[in-house]
Structure formats: C-alpha cells, structure tokens
Amino acid sequence: MNSVKIMLRGALTIIMLATGLGAATVSLAQEADQAPAEPLSEECKAFAADLNADVGDIMRAGCKPTVGQMSALMDNPLGNVAMLFTQVDWMVKKEPISGREDMQINYMGIAQFPKKLNDNWNLINRVIWNVGSVPLDLDNDSGFGSSPGDGSILPPPDGFPPGANPPLPIDLFRGRTTGFGDMMYVALFSPSGTKKIGEGNFTWGAGFDVGLPTASEDILGSGKWTAGPSGLAVYMGPKWKVGGLVTHFKDFASRDSARADVNLTNLQYFLFYSLNETTAIGMAPNIICNWEQASDNKCTVPIGLGFVTTANIGKVPFRFGAEFHYSIVTPDDSLFTKWNFRFYVIPAAPSALFKWMN
C-alpha cells in the first residue's frame, strides 16, 4: 500500500503543476492569510444574492463568487470551471465460478479544463490517468488486462487458462499487482450557453476519446490504442441534476497482438437531489458493457447512494463526495464488481482565472 500512496501523491503533484490548477489554487489559498476583506460593494452584494450569476461576470466586476455559486458552477460538467478530480474506488471483485471475492483498489485522476473556441462553442478537455492495485499476480501471457476508463479487470480472449472456455473453476485471486494504468484523453465540444427547460437548464457536449497503452504492467492495461465517440448531456433543475457521460473504446492498434480486442462502453449516469446550495444526495455509478464478452450478460449495472458537498478551504472551493454502489446486473462467466465504495475530492477554479482558457 505504501507504493500506492507514493504514486497517488506523485501523480497529483505532477498534474496540478502541469495544468496550472495547482498554482491557481495555491495563489487563491494564500489570499486567505492576508488582511480581512473589505466590505462588499453594492454590485458585489447584488452578485452574491444571485446563486446563478455568471462567475466570469462576478470576477470581471472585481467581486468574488460565493461557495454556493461555485457549487452551482461545478454542478455543470461542461461549465467554465477547471477541476482536478481525485477519486479512489474500493471494489469487491467476485469470480462467479469459484465464488471467491477479493479487493481491487483504483485511483483515478482527471484534469478537466475548458477552452473557449468562439462566442458559441467551448472545448472541454479531460486528461485521465489511473493507478491500480488488482488482486492478481499472473504471467504476462495470461491474457488478463484492465479496461480503459475505470480499470476494471478484463478477461483473456480465450478463457483462463488460455484455451479453456468456459474458464476452469480455479482460484484467480493470488498475489497483487500495483502500478500505473492506461491514460485517456476525452474532448467534448459544447455550446457556450444552456437551453432553458422549465425551471432548469439543459446542456450537452459531443466529441471523442483516445486511450494510450501506458500501463506499467500488462494486467493493469489493455495493451491497445483505443478511440471512439463520447457524449455528455445534463439537466440542472432547481433541485434535481440528471445526466450521463458515455465513452466508447474500440482498439485500432495493438502493442501486443495476443491481447484481447477492446470494444467497451462506459456510461456514467448521475442523479442528484440538492438539499441546499452546497449539499446533495444521489449517485454517479459507471455502467460497463464489454461487447467482446462471451456471456449473454455483457454489462455490469450498478445502483448506489451517496452525498456530495462543497466547501471552501481558505478561499479555494473543494467538492467532497462518497458513494456506495451495488451491481444489480453482472456477467456470469468473468470477474465483476459486486460492491464499490467511492470517495472523491475535487478542487476547482473558475476558468476566468486563466487567460489561455478564454
């Protein structure tokens, strides 16, 4: 576990420095140690009273957004805000033939930052990396791997041991492999504005994803270069936030021709109910469908419940969340996630702080 902690800290430091988000959050935090703020002007008071005020307009007027306004901005996954997702999943994996269970741990980091293309369109960039610890320690020719997107364990193409289809009822959970996984880039082109629907707003984005075979161990990656379409849609009402992000991964080149083909869809759907300006309950699990799987049940479908809240540390807004997920639909011939506990921390900064984003 010490190696996991070291890699998590290193990856977090590197990405914060690389994106400039770290420098921005440090700069904002340092302001907290300065002299007490001056009384708000009438214009700033008016902005503070409007939860849905444009954060860019607030900052251009020399005012500062409230924590509620930043929370509302972070509710929009296509909004004008740079965010650094730091997410850890503790997954109980089950092998359906033997019935054995063991723990898989996956750290996922996502650096998300928008780029204004023109008055009508933005480009939302997401750089994703994984550090995983799987309960398997197998030879490189075993054929096992991990999926793009969430690090789920992928079965070998011809069963395990190779050629045994269905696989033999043997104990797969032995040893442990820890290291860096595959990286991904997701680009979403999104309209600058939102569409009013009832009392809420609707927005969407569409684009593509690219997966890179960067895993430090074969079992921690797919061994493939992948690409596919991506899309996101979200409705943000006064109380309900509903939507989903879908990414599809299809291999187009291989670092190892013996590895299984990749043809996988990851749908992260989210459903949250706001208790107040900064806190909500709901869920955001990932539905994983492996179309190369031999089973009639190609998808793992979880449901869950959790909470999310936003608070300032110094003057930097942070989002904290925790969720439990349970899979109600699972494959019947390969490893699957039975339970999952997810914890995440997301520092954020308005894109108005970064000239190059505008």
Number of strands: 17
- End-to-end CA span: 41 Å
Beta-strand proportion: over 45%
Low-confidence stretches: 10-35
Main sheet record? 15 strands, antiparallel
Elements, N to C (H/E): HHHHHEEEEEEEEEEEEEEEEE
CATH fold name, please? Porin
- Secondary structure tally, helices: 5
CATH architecture heading: Beta Barrel
CATH homology superfamily name: monomeric porin ompg
- In terms of quaternary structure, the protein is single chain
Question: For the residues shown, what is the average pLDDT?
Answer: 82
CATH class: Mainly Beta
**Portion of residues in helices?**
10-25%
Category by helix and strand content? mainly beta
Radius of gyration: 21 Å
- How many distinct domains? 1
What's the shape? elongated
Overall description:
- The protein has 358 residues and is mainly beta.
- It has one domain (2-357): monomeric porin ompg (Porin).
- The chain has helices at 2-19, 21-31, 42-48, 55-60, 67-75, and strands at 81-94, 101-116, 121-134, 145-146, 153-154, 177-180, 183-191, 195-197, 200-212, 224-236, 240-254, 263-274, 279-283, 286-290, 299-313, 316-329, 336-350.
- The longest helix is centred in the N-terminal third of the chain and has 18 residues, at 2-19.
- It is elongated and about 65 Å long.
- Residues 10-35 have low confidence and may be disordered.
